[in-house]
Amino acid sequence: MMQRLRAQTCAKLSRSHSVKCEAAGQADTVRIAFRGREVEVPRGSKLRTALLRAGLTPHSEGAMYINCRGIGSCGTCAVEIEGEVQPAVWTTAEQLRLNFPPHSAPGNQRLRLACQVACSGDLLRVTKYDKFWGEGSAALPDLPSAHPVAAVAEAPEAPAGAGGAATSRTAAGGVTPLGELEFILDRGARQAERRQQ
Ligand code: FES
């Protein structure tokens, strides 16, 4: 039931973007390449939300449980992003958090907070570095083939389109220990959820 709700929410979010995107000649989805996987997410969705709903996580294993859920204060969703996101430069929250230990120059310069940026462009290549806050210098390896992202691709209840199959992976992937509360601070995700109700 929850899987279906999440899937419908993503589809709805995607539809609301599609009119604007068609006018702009853009696809209403953005591809994300992350740790050897590629997923399609609704254009304009927050990167943290998009990854979690796709069964992937911008957090390290421990930080998956202990993080600020998108307020921009914990710094554990730090990732390197190749491709276009909005805003293009650090937000105030990023300036504060990415300049605060354990993040520090010069390593912090390549990082963005996944909870503070919206997916844009066509393809985002997202790299997560090691250590609890992602402040390390070694990129995390590709996910094993047994990772739930692949396993749930055939989920029967998942509708076609952006975020559909990916959403079902969330529950199976166990990357959202708080369920929908994971997205409580993502206004866009909450609005989509309300429209769905
Ligand atoms: S989730 Fe805490 S800073 Fe992004």
TrEMBL record:
Every 2Fe-2S ferredoxin-type domain range: 28-132
Positions in coiled-coil regions: none
Highest taxon listed in the record's lineage: Eukaryota
An individual GO BP term: electron transport chain
PROSITE patterns xrefs: 2FE2S_FER_2
GO cellular component: mitochondrion
Xref: Gene3D superfamilies: 3.10.20.30
A matching Pfam family: Fer2_4
CDD domains, alphabetized: fer2 (cd00207)
Molecular-function GO terms, alphabetical: 2 iron, 2 sulfur cluster binding; electron transfer activity
Keywords: 2Fe-2S, Iron, Iron-sulfur, Metal-binding
Annotated protein name in UniProt: 2Fe-2S ferredoxin-type domain-containing protein
